[in-house]
Amino acid sequence: MRLTQYPLLLLPLLAVYCAHSQPQYLKFTHIGTGAGLSANNVTCILRDDQGFMWVGTRDGLNRYDGYRFTVYRNIPGSAKYQQQFRDLDDP
């Protein structure tokens, strides 16, 4: 029997081989306040074009570079804070 005469018999074997070549597990790493995250309650997550993970919490905005967090907190009454809202309100 020549394999070129029965190509449909090879398709199931190829499908089984491809299905078993996929990784069978996923690895998750839980990162919390011990690693530098400002709060454990995460409200949003975004990955930017540079590869940074931005994590929004009620305690601030956290930038994760894969090794450590940089926390950006709101400082009410600061000049930058007031200027940002003034710009957003102007038409």
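The above is record 1. Record 2 follows with the same two-line structure.
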Amino acid sequence: MFDITSNHFQLYYRHIGPHSTGVVMDVHPFRVKDNNDPPNVSDLYDFTVKVLPVDDIPPKLHPSSTLQVSVRLKESFAPICRNVNI
């Protein structure tokens, strides 16, 4: 018998559903059996996955954005400087 939580085995899950801002629950039914002849087969169990949202959608420009900045010529701006010690 093997434990999937040990260092020798890993279980991967990839959610390929639509983007969601809320938590998504996904359930996969499964059975376990061995190599005996005839095999021992377990009851049906559910493997439940709780998918937490990740905001990985790149930002989009709003349709009303002009991408223009108007500055009066007599206004002065202080440059933004970042001191970096190397």
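Strands lie at 24-30, 45-51.
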